[in-house]
Design a protein that fits this description.
mainly alpha; Serine Threonine Protein Phosphatase 5, Tetratricopeptide repeat; elongated; C-type cytochrome biogenesis protein CcmI
Length: 378
């Protein structure tokens, strides 16, 4: 019942806000005209007094009276025009009034037929009281947040919630949760590596100085932490230190167990970011379906960061050695797969420019891009 009372009050207020200006428009115009006429009459009276005292000559007084009379005539014509046009304005006001009143009536009628006005409310407290097995992820997170709001010193709660935030890509919340867990329950390699990943995620995949500090702290606690090692090598690659990044990834391969989910990621990153290609001098290659499959066991953030790093490395290699048709097609496809249509078009344009717009390679590039739903820009 309270809902309908509030809805009725809000609807009435909105309707009056529209109707009152329509109702008062003509009255405002009339009052303005009456005021002007009163001013002109005062001017005529003042002119007569000045002429009687000899302050103004007869000729000037007559000319002034004629000018005031012309103004009064123009004012009368304007009032007549307003009255003449008042009939359609009244019609417009009537139509507007009916429309404004019809909107809430029609909307309420439709809601009563197709809505759920009798559905009982579901307060958050009742939803959080449900069995956890019957709750959604958002409800479980809300329950954990409510618990931590009441018990902010529960380090275990922050430790459990932090990786959930990370999987939900709520990176700022994840970083705050990891910091709370570290402050309350102490350092651990897992927490520091998670903090670094959250900071990098909040920065769009860039391994900043704060993220590097967290990853380095994780390696001090656990030199075999694969996540920290991978991201620190990625930081080297992002700084343009490709050889050092390749050396770091190569060192990781010697320490990772055969069944580690990071082994495939490190091998692919090493191959695409300078390791094997620098040594062999072969043509640049971008990530393909096999690369993505190899990283399927990684988290979404780790996988996207790895693929973006490989694509950036391929782009750099093609800028240095542009006469590689297969490399250009791999780059265009990689950008399309990543959803970066603008970068894909830019790569397509650069590839065509390298070989010439009339070359067979350019025609091949154009046909390939069209198969991906991409067209070259001017």
């Amino acid at each position: 019942m309270l809902f309908w009372v509030i809805a009725a009050i809000l609807t009435l207020g909105a309707s009056l806000a529209v109707l009152l200006p329509l109702a008062g428009a003509s009255e405002g115009a009339s009052s303005s005209g009456d005021h002007d006429l009163e001013v002109y009459r005062d001017q005529l009276s003042e002119l007569d007094r000045d002429a009687a005292r000899g302050l103004i000559g007869p000729a000037e007084a007559a000319e002034a009276r004629a000018e005031i009379a012309r103004r009064i005539l123009r004012l009368g014509n304007a009032d007549m025009a307003a009255k003449t046009s008042g009939r359609p304005s009244g019609t417009v006001r009537l139509v507007a009034t009916v429309a404004v009143l019809a909107v809430p009536l029609v909307s309420w009628g439709l809601y009563s037929q197709i809505g759920s006005p009798d559905l009982p409310s579901q307060p958050l407290s009742e939803r959080l009281a449900k069995n956890p097995a019957d709750s959604s992820v958002d409800e479980l997170v809300a329950r954990a947040e409510a618990h931590l709001a009441a018990n902010p010193s529960d380090g275990r709660g922050w430790d459990v919630l932090a990786p959930v935030y990370l999987r939900m890509q709520r990176f700022a919340d994840a970083a705050a949760a990891y910091r709370n867990a570290i402050r309350l329950d102490g350092d651990s390699a897992v927490r520091q590596a998670g903090l670094g990943e959250a900071i990098a995620g909040a920065a769009g995949g860039i391994v900043s100085a704060d993220a590097q500090d967290a990853f380095e702290a994780a390696l001090k606690l656990d030199p075999a932490n694969a996540k920290a090692g991978f991201y620190l090598a990625m930081a080297l690659a992002q700084e343009g230190r490709g050889k050092e990044a390749a050396a770091a990834w190569q060192a990781m391969l010697g320490t990772l167990p055969p069944d580690s989910p990071w082994r495939g990621a490190v091998e692919q990153a090493l191959a695409k970011s300078g390791g094997r290609e620098v040594a062999s001098g072969t043509a640049a290659k971008g990530p393909d379906a096999a690369d993505v499959d190899a990283a399927s066991s990684m988290s979404q953030q780790d996988r996207e960061a790895m693929i973006n790093t490989m694509v950036a490395g391929l782009d750099d290699k093609l800028r240095q050695n542009p006469r590689d048709p297969e490399g250009w097609m791999r780059l265009v496809r990689s950008y399309v797969v990543l959803g970066k249509a603008d970068q894909a078009r830019d790569a397509l344009g650069r590839a065509i420019a390298v070989f010439g717009a009339d070359s067979d390679e350019a025609k091949k590039f154009t046909a390939f891009a069209a198969s991906l739903g991409l067209t070259a820009t001017e």
